[in-house]
Design a protein that fits this description.
The complex is a heterodimer of chains A (329) and B (315). Chain A has 329 residues and is an all-alpha fold. Chain A is built from 14 helices and no strands. Chain B has a domain at 43-68 and 88-99 and 172-267 and 279-309: 3-Layer(aba) Sandwich (Rossmann fold). Chain B has 10 helices and 12 strands. Chain B has helices spanning 4-7, 59-67, 89-95, 116-121, 129-139, 156-168, 186-201, 213-219, 250-258, 292-296, and strands spanning 12-24, 30-43, 48-52, 74-82, 85-86, 100-103, 174-178, 205-210, 222-227, 230-236, 302-304, 307-309. In chain B, the strands form 2 sheets. An 8-stranded mixed β-sheet of chain B has the order 6-7-8-3-9-10-12-11, with helices on both faces. Chain B has a 4-stranded antiparallel β-sheet with strand order 2-1-4-5, covered by helices on one side. The chains are: A mainly alpha (329), B alpha/beta (315).
């Protein structure tokens, strides 16, 4: 286990190094000009000399390898720089935005996990029946629905037409920050979380169904049936036991889709999360924030995958007890 | 039926069993695949019946048909009588695991994520499952810690004992062992068969499905020979001797003579495929004694000299 964890940490470090260098180079090749982003609306007031001075002050006139080295050293010290659009340290911005995003993603993740698992289980147990077909049809329709479009539909229906939810933002507009209640936040969170969750349901349900169908066709389920087990008892004893692990693992490994989805959902609902910050940073040329978000999202997705792997090692006896076949407790 | 042992009424009597599968081959075109044509076997309490035959002769499907665990696209026809009553699907559902137990081929039939003790306990339906399981494990010389192991941790021999234990733990009156000794070390084969023999001596009816004729001859009371989904002969073990002159069907004789210790003489040709069964006797194309009758009319299974055979010419 120690060896495994050391290996994973090494892998994370190399991954982060590769992601950092690659995004740095990509940004370098992109038309984004940090000075222009910094100057912003004051463009006309800033002459070419001042422009050059700002560039020199930031070291932008230095050769690429030197800039990369300086930025990397700063990141290693924990200094991700200052966001140009928020005028605050990148770490602060990410920290605050990530909490908002985390609430959104966790709600969506839990919803899609529970609802998808239930649907998939039902479809798998009723394989080949109309229930199964209906669920599959529903999932395939969902899976081919673009998230932003679904988000717009949800907005139109529940926020504009029915008026049950606010149209956007993470907190009510015009209310001082200290007067915002938890209920307000939840109220603003629900619609984007539901949108993100509903699209996640399809994948979870179809995977659960597939896994359950495989398990039900296995020799051990045949033998369990030969011993008189059937229906719910069979599902509880053998079905659930054998699909729980792969399905949970898959759920953890889906962090990348979750993060990608949250970028879209936050954009549609103007929800002030990390995804929205990433889009703003990209559009407005906020290089430090963009690089920070990239590194952070890499860590986030990596931890999801690591959690999936750890679960397998801790729970599946075939991996847990490997190399010790005679262990008797 | 003159002998006293034969006089005991069969616990299970299968006659004229046929199993076919419906498959969709491209679009809505249906295709029916005949897997078992005309199987008849019976087994009595305290008796061990071995069912032998090549692969594809319908041996395993017979076991699944008796238990009622064939896949949904299977169509079963024929008569199955268990303890004097028809074995209907409803009755099968209540009997399997209680009165009729299956011993599967391999450790793959155990839930990979469940400790083996728990899996054996679930077979025992009379109250104290744990005590029954421990008692059986010690009878089969399985160490006390074995019940805590997962199937992947069992050695070949241990796995075999656990699989037999799943059937022995219950009060099943009929035990069907489906190919319980595939490619195992001869010592393990002998031990497993001895366990099965013990169960039949204790009064249970044991049906041993195998392609290992030698092993079947060493332990069983009677042998049923299957060929291309039908029973061609049922004979007492004692008839398998000499040049096979006491046997009734040319296929059983050929099987007997093909054994290494009996001359190693192979039979040419192969079992017909289920898609392309001959019109008359299924064995006629390979039979050295086939006459024009044989190719035209499928012979019925008929009693002969204390056994049964499906051959026009047997005497």
């Amino acid at each position: 286990m120690l060896l495994f964890l050391t290996g994973r940490i090494l892998r994370l470090l190399t991954l982060l190094a590769a992601v950092s260098v690659l995004s740095f180079l990509l940004l370098e090749a992109s038309p984004i000009d940090p000075v222009r982003a910094y100057v912003g609306a004051d463009m006309l007031k800033v002459g070419p000399e001042q422009w050059a001075k700002i560039a020199e002050y930031w070291g932008l006139d230095r050769p690429l390898p030197e800039r990369l080295a300086r930025w990397s050293m700063a990141v290693l010290r924990g200094d991700l720089g200052v966001s140009m659009i928020f005028r605050r340290p990148v770490l602060d911005v990410i920290g605050e935005r990530f909490l908002a995003s985390l609430a959104l993603m966790l709600t969506a993740w839990t919803f899609s996990g529970i609802f998808g698992f239930a649907l998939g289980t039902l479809a798998g147990m009723k394989q080949g029946t109309w229930t199964d077909r209906l669920i599959k049809w529903y999932c395939l329709t969902l899976a081919s629905t673009p998230l932003f479009w679904l988000g717009l539909l949800m907005l139109l229906t529940f926020a504009v037409w029915l008026g049950w939810f606010p149209v956007g933002l993470g907190v009510p507009a015009g209310v001082p920050a200290h007067e915002v209640t938890l209920a307000d936040r939840v109220h603003h969170l629900l619609l984007p979380a539901l949108t993100l969750g509903i699209t996640g349901v399809a994948g979870v349900a179809l995977h659960t169904r597939q896994k359950l169908v495989e398990v039900l066709q296995s020799d051990y389920v045949l033998f369990a049936r030969a011993r008189g087990e059937s229906g719910l008892q069979l599902f509880r004893r053998h079905g659930l036991r054998n699909i729980a692990l792969p399905v949970t693992t898959l759920q953890f490994a889906s962090f990348s889709e979750l993060f990608g989805g949250s970028v879209l959902a936050e954009q549609v609902f103007s929800y002030p999360g990390l995804g929205q910050a990433a889009v703003q940073a990209g559009l407005r040329g906020d290089v430090p924030l963009l690089l920070g978000v990239v590194i952070f999202s890499a860590i986030f997705v990596f931890s999801g995958n690591l959690a999936a792997e750890l679960l397998y090692r801790l729970i599946d006896p075939r991996l847990r007890l490997k190399g010790d076949p005679c262990e008797q407790r | 039926m003159l002998m006293t042992k034969e006089a005991v009424r069969p616990l299970l009597e299968v006659s004229g069993l046929s199993v076919s599968f419906t498959q969709y081959t491209g679009g809505l075109r249906q295709k029916t695949i005949q897997a078992i044509v005309d199987l008849s076997v019976s087994v009595r309490p305290g008796e061990m019946l071995a069912i032998v035959g090549g692969s594809g002769s319908g041996k395993s499907l017979l076991a699944h048909a008796i238990l009622g665990i064939l896949p949904g696209n299977a169509c079963v026809d024929g008569r199955m009588i268990y303890a004097g009553e028809h074995l209907t699907p409803v009755r099968q559902a209540t009997l399997r695991g209680r009165e009729i137990a299956l011993i599967p081929q391999s450790v793959n039939f155990l839930d990979p994520l469940m400790r083996v003790g728990a899996q054996v306990r679930s077979s025992s339906l009379n109250g104290n499952g744990a005590a029954v399981q421990r008692e059986i494990f010690s009878r089969y010389h399985l160490a006390a810690g074995t019940e805590q192991l997962f199937p992947f941790q069992l050695s070949g021999g241990m796995a075999r004992r656990v699989l037999v234990a799943t059937a022995a733990a219950g009060n099943a009156r009929l035990i069907i062992a489906d190919e319980p000794t595939p490619g195992l070390h001869s010592a393990i084969v002998r031990e497993t068969l001895a366990h099965l023999r013990e169960l039949s001596t204790a009064g249970r009816a044991v049906m041993l499905i195998t392609h290992d004729i030698t092993a079947a001859l060493e332990t069983a009371d009677r042998i049923a020979v299957f060929y291309a989904g039908s029973t061609v002969e049922t004979a007492p073990v004692s008839d398998f001797c000499g040049e096979g002159e006491l046997l009734r069907h040319p296929y059983s004789k050929a099987l007997w003579r093909a054994l290494p210790q009996n001359g190693f003489r192979p039979l040419s040709g192969s079992q017909p495929s289920v898609d392309d069964l001959p019109q008359g006797c299924l064995f006629a194309p390979r039979c050295p004694f086939a006459s024009p009758d044989c190719a035209a009319v499928q012979p019925e299974l008929r009693p002969l000299r204390g056994g049964e055979t499906r051959c026009h010419h047997a005497a």
